[in-house]
Amino acid sequence: MGEENITEITEIFLLGIKHLHQHKVLAFSLFLVIYFVTICGNLLIITLVVHSKNLHSPMYFFLTQLSVCDILMATDIVPNMLYVILNDGGLISLLGCITQFLIFCSSASSECLLLASMSYDRYLAICNPLRYSAIMNHMFCLKLVIMCWVISYSVLINQAIPMLELSFCGPNAIDHFFCDYGPLLDLSCSDTYKVEIESNLLSIPFVISPFFITVVSYVYIVSTILKIPSLTGRHKAFSTCSSHLVAVCIYYGSLTSIYSVPKQANLQSISKLLSLLYTVVTPTINPFIYSFRNKDIHKAFDKFIKKITLI
């Protein structure tokens, strides 16, 4: 084997989205605005829930954690993506590339677990309302959220150790705007079978199990709602979980579509667009999904604005 084939790379060049190179100023401006809206929107949700007593309920507590997760996801991906767009590609250290993927992976796992927790909360509220307050007390919610974060960020250890043991011999270019799992492993000259098996096994507790919990919860929720005799009662019950259901559909829909696209050169552009939906757009629209037609958040926002104007 030649010397150049055994020389390990220390930097990776992200090619970005080639179709945007001709319109990089417009693309940079658009994604900068999207990132700004993401941060401001999610921070606003957190601020409203913290400062408004009428939002001190389990569902909104979980929503603040989802907002934190969206901020982490966007901050991990978008700033470096903006640099890549502006420079028609960009260098990132190998360690930085692996770190970006691990934070992305952990944030995605957190979101799956938090969405499952929120579905369980909605299941109790609709299917077992008499025991809701007793089960979903403050301490239980706090333990559930801590468990979600601790378990999801254990991905860092479980994924980091085997990935750092790999040798990366090049080529040192990734045809993507961030360091995703597949493109990163393609650069390794080591046997990646063990890493891929471990990654597939980790998807069971972090993606498949939360998805199963969410689906089962909504099967019971829909079944209970259909048993409500009045149309008004059904509409009221469904309205309490409609925002969460939309967020779940968008999240898992985009996640599934990304990894179901075949790894072919002519489909790489589609894969990148789907990745944009998952990593950039979804964290932006979540605050709007949960605040749209939500009277409690509207009231909290009005009070917050009045309080600011009086200062």
| Radius of gyration from CA coordinates | 22 Å
Determine the strand fraction and express it as a percent band: under 5%
Number of helices: 13
Low-confidence regions: 1-5
What class would the helix/strand composition place it in? Answer: mainly alpha
Averaging pLDDT over every residue, what do you get? Answer: 87
For the termini, the CA-CA separation is 71 Å
- How many runs of DSSP E, i.e. beta strands? 3
The order of strands across the largest sheet is 2-1-3
Shape annotation: globular
Instruction: Determine the fraction of residues in helical runs and give it as a percent range.
Output: over 70%
Order of helices and strands: HEHHEHHHHEHHHHHH
The profile of the biggest β sheet is: 3 strands, mixed
Description:
- The model is unreliable at 1-5 (pLDDT under 50).
- The radius of gyration is 22 Å and the shape is globular.
- The longest helix has 34 residues, at 94-127.
- α2 (24-51) packs parallel to α12 (268-291), α3 runs antiparallel to α4 (94-127) and α7 (155-164) runs antiparallel to α9.
- It has a three-stranded mixed β-sheet with strand order 2-1-3.
- Helix content is 76%, strand content 3%.
- It has helices at 3-6, 24-51, 58-86, 94-127, 129-135, 138-153, 155-164, 181-186, 193-226, 231-239, 242-260, 268-291, 295-310, and strands at 11-14, 90-93, 173-174.
- By secondary structure, the chain is mainly alpha-helical.
